Design the sequence.
């Protein structure tokens, strides 16, 4: 019984570490602090971003990414005029940013979602129910994040196998090349030995032609 209770507590603790509950906060965007819905995940930023993008893609939406060396909003993903019924019955712009929690915590990420329309932050205008649904949307994203993380691990493992297979092919090619060189070397040695024997025979013939001196 105690063992089962420990297992249950461990499982609950793992889920808590993997994802906390969504909350409200701020992030700098468009030259000002913006209110946003946020959540922490115990996964890499790449996995979290992939999960959100893929879920929006299933609804038919692709993001525009903020780019440019001098663009202070670089890295934000903007889903314009999107209709996400799990959050609201109205179309909105979903402005998304995923960041690593810290340099040390590479497997911890923070997801920010700004709810906007016509370049205006809607957090003050939305009902508590809509904001609550936005938080639930992020809370319920965890299985998608886990799946995205697994796909990244599978991809990394496939790449590791492909790299190892290439190394093995290169080693086998090197072995074949060395074996050919050894075979050629052996043939050259045999031919050189025959040449030496022929040269010795020729030397013997020449030396046999010497006239004795008295």
Sequence:
């Amino acid at each position: 019984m105690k063992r089962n209770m420990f297992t249950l507590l461990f499982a609950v603790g793992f889920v808590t570490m993997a994802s906390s509950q969504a909350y409200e906060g701020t992030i700098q965007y468009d030259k000002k602090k913006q209110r946003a819905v946020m959540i922490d995940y115990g996964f890499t930023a790449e996995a979290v971003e992939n999960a959100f993008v893929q879920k929006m893609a299933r609804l038919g939406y692709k993001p525009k990414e903020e780019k440019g060396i001098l663009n202070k909003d670089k890295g934000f993903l903007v889903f314009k005029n999107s209709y996400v019924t799990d959050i609201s019955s109205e179309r909105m712009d979903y402005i998304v940013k995923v960041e690593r929690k810290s340099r040390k915590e590479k497997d911890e990420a923070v997801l920010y979602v700004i709810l906007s329309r016509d370049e205006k932050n809607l957090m003050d205008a939305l009902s508590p129910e809509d904001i609550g649904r936005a938080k639930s949307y992020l809370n319920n994203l965890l299985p998608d994040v886990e799946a995205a993380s697994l796909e990244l691990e599978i991809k990394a493992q496939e790449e590791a196998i492909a790299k190892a297979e290439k190394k093995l092919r290169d080693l086998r090619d090197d072995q074949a090349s060395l074996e050919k060189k050894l075979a050629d070397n052996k043939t050259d040695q045999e031919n050189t030995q025959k040449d030496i024997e022929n040269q010795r025979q020729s030397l013997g013939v020449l030396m046999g032609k010497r006239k004795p001196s008295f």
